[in-house]
Specification:
The chain is an all-beta fold. The protein is built from no helices and eight strands.
């Protein structure tokens, strides 16, 4: 078996996850980026969204998410999806997304893990403004190459 080729990006050590009192979300991401909401489809039980944009360490990312409301409440639910990217050196990275979301008005906050085809596991938090067609992305590497 030949050794796996090295990627062009290096991954520094991660920061410790923490929460600000009363905010209920991770306080400072190790890496991040911004994605444009390129498609939104309203479904009876939720939403389907496509995104495209730049994420630090991953370049241009393409993602699709399905948001399914809880049966009792349209302000929270589960998400599933997929993200893909090509790095500058041609490396192809793909990962499933599985997690939860909360909605306040036109803003969704989603929290999920991903597990790339290269063995990297991240905790990811997105804030999606549906009226501005933007998603702010933050992530922390939990496992994988370069994790200290």
């Amino acid at each position: 078996m030949s050794p796996k080729p090295k990627r062009s990006r290096s991954i520094p050590s991660t920061e410790t996850l923490g929460t600000e009192k009363g905010e209920g979300h991770a306080r400072s991401a190790r890496w991040g980026g911004e994605l444009s909401l390129t498609r939104l489809t309203v479904k009876e039980d939720g939403l389907c969204c496509d995104f495209r944009g730049q994420v630090e360490g991953y370049g241009t990312v393409y993602a699709s998410h399905r948001f399914v409301y809880d049966s009792k409440n349209e302000s929270q639910g589960t998400l599933s999806g997929e993200a893909r990217t090509f790095l500058e050196d041609g490396t192809y990275i793909t990962t499933p997304h599985r997690g939860t979301f909360v909605r306040e008005g036109a803003v969704l906050r989603s929290y999920f893990t991903d597990a790339t085809n290269e063995g990297v596991v991240n905790f990811v938090a997105w804030t999606i403004n549906l009226t501005a067609d933007l998603a702010s992305v933050r992530y922390w590497q939990l496992e994988g190459p370069g994790k200290s």
